[in-house]
Amino acid sequence: EVLYSGYDSTLPDSSWRIMSTLNMLGGRQVV
Predict the structure, then answer these.
(1) Which of 2, 3, 15, 27 could join 11 via S-S bond, C-beta 3.0 to 4.6 A?
(2) Cα-based angle 31, 14, 7 (whole degrees, multiple of 5)
């Protein structure tokens, strides 16, 4: 499930990076 696909245009670049990092480290724990 590519959830960061929608976050890309919803959240700022900085927030997207944090989300992407947390997603990679914690998996889908930040849904």
Answers:
(1) 15
(2) 40
